[in-house]
Specification:
- Strand 4 and strand 5 form a beta hairpin.
- This protein has 455 residues and is an alpha+beta fold.
- It has 13 helices and 22 strands.
- Strands 11, 12, 15, 16, 18, 19 and 22 form a seven-stranded mixed sheet that branches. The chain has a four-stranded antiparallel sheet with strand order 6-3-10-9. A four-stranded antiparallel sheet has the order 5-4-7-8.
- The protein is elongated.
Length: 455
């Protein structure tokens, strides 16, 4: 792709401009005028419906010299000022005049902004490798028309205005037919929270020797009386927000990779509060207190094994799969995972449960292996099995540290990013199991709206 220019503005500038239209000059290429860009803002309706539909076409115009056509559809939503905005493109079907496109799903608000009678324009193109796609024709419809489903009303003539103006016998450039249509309601994260779904927050902290001696200022676990270390900052940043979604405010907290007193046994899932019967700590302050106490009593050792703690939380999640609880495990670590094979197996197993895993990397180490667990690009797999969902979010804390040393700002940046995927991960689990939110609990509306803004 070629760089054409750049400009900077805020959402507030666009919304606050006359008629929600902001025009800016592009720059960025020395000695060259880059043109202008126009931003337009329109508030989307709160319509939650999602439409799934499928189209096919018949006898489209032949556009390719050596073949037929490679057709695809482009859907446009009409704006209040009469302009159109692309809201969906189908895939390209190669070398055919009678394509059947795959069904696709689109929010109704993206198609018509909740106005069922607003015009939806559809262009039909023939795909070309160089990007200069040939225009076959167009037709218009509306969401109300499409929602009638498969019928004679949803067979559309594809018209090419230029051809129509030049050829007296021109009829059309083919037809496009709606094959199927269904609409479902989309639930939100807030719907589940209002209905009583609890987020169960568990913490696991790396106590391996690579962190350095906690009594030394160079250690990542250094207990500075004047400021928090990175472990404490990460824990407090994420925990203080997530605790609002947990009614009992009791958080299991574990350490891994340490030798425990009195016999020096290595553990990869020891309770920070030293209570083997109940690892719960009261509030985030209780977790921090147990963390600092453990630093005084255990010996940092190794290796860095993730699987035991993941499996421990997964065991709890396995017992409650009715949508009433969702488990979030925060793991804070300074280095490379020693049991990657077992960890990937644990993540694949946990992906079918009501559970998410947040991994925060602290310190200067390379965290390439962690990226493998964060399945944004490639879904995690183990022994030929792929994770049912992407449940891992990894971030290196160093990317969020404020240069001026402002710890509050660093923590806010970290929390915003690591918690960003939790709502969608919770929704993906609920949808995969067909779990609908329960009716809103009394007096929960205002509280959950405020919390949703924080997450």
């Amino acid at each position: 792709m070629d760089f054409l220019g750049q400009t900077f503005c805020t959402l507030g500038e666009i919304i606050g401009s006359t008629a929600g239209r902001l025009e800016r000059t592009l720059s960025g290429i020395p000695g060259k005028k880059c043109g202008t860009i126009i931003f337009m803002a329109e508030e989307l309706s709160n319509c939650r419906d999602i439409a799934t539909m499928q189209f096919c076409a018949n006898k489209l115009d032949k556009k390719d010299f050596f073949g037929k056509s490679d057709p695809f559809l482009v859907f446009y939503r009409s704006n209040e000022d009469g302009t159109f905005t692309i809201c969906h493109k189908t895939e390209v079907i190669k070398n055919t005049l009678n394509p059947v496109w795959q069904q696709f799903t689109i929010p109704v608000r993206a198609l018509c902004n909740g106005d069922y009678d607003r015009t939806v324009k559809v262009d039909v193109f023939d795909w070309d490798r160089d990007g200069s796609h040939d225009f076959i024709g167009e037709f218009t419809t509306s969401y109300r028309e499409i929602s009638r489903g498969q019928s004679q009303f949803n067979v559309y003539e594809v018209l090419n205005p230029k051809k129509k103006g030049k050829k007296k016998k021109y009829v059309n450039s083919g037809t496009v037919t709606l094959l199927s249509f269904k609409v479902e309601s989309e639930y939100t994260f807030v719907d589940y929270i209002r209905g009583g779904t609890q987020l169960n927050f568990t913490v696991a902290i790396d106590f391996t020797a690579s962190n350095g001696n906690p009594s030394q200022p160079t250690s990542l676990h250094y207990m500075n009386p004047y400021q928090m270390n990175m472990y404490a900052m990460a824990l407090k940043a994420v925990g203080e927000i997530i605790q609002d979604y947990d009614s009992d405010k009791l958080f299991p907290a574990y350490g891994f990779g340490a030798k425990l007193p009195p016999d020096g046994k290595i553990s990869h899932a020891f309770p920070l509060n030293s209570n083997s019967e109940d690892a719960n700590c009261v509030g985030i302050e209780g977790v921090l207190e147990a963390y600092f106490q453990s630093l005084r009593t255990v010996q940092l050792y190794g290796p860095t094994n993730f699987a035991p703690v993941i499996n421990q939380v997964a065991g709890l999640a396995e017992e409650v799969t009715d949508g009433s609880q969702y488990f979030v495990l925060l793991m804070i670590t300074d280095g490379v995972i020693s049991d990657m094979v077992q960890t990937k197996e644990a993540v694949v197993n946990a992906a079918s449960l009501p559970m998410s895993i947040i991994i925060v990397g602290v310190g200067p180490a390379e965290f390439d292996a962690m990226e493998e667990l964060d399945g944004d690009e490639v879904r995690v797999s183990s022994r030929g099995r792929y994770a049912e969902r992407d449940i891992v979010q990894f971030v290196p804390f160093r990317d969020y540290i404020d240069r001026s040393g402002n710890q509050v700002l660093s923590m806010a940046r970290l929390a915003k990013d690591v918690l960003a995927e939790i709502p969608d991960q919770l929704l993906s689990f609920m949808k995969s199991r067909g779990i609908e939110p329960r009716p809103a609990l009394p007096n929960s509306t205002n509280n959950s709206q405020a919390l949703n803004m924080r997450i």
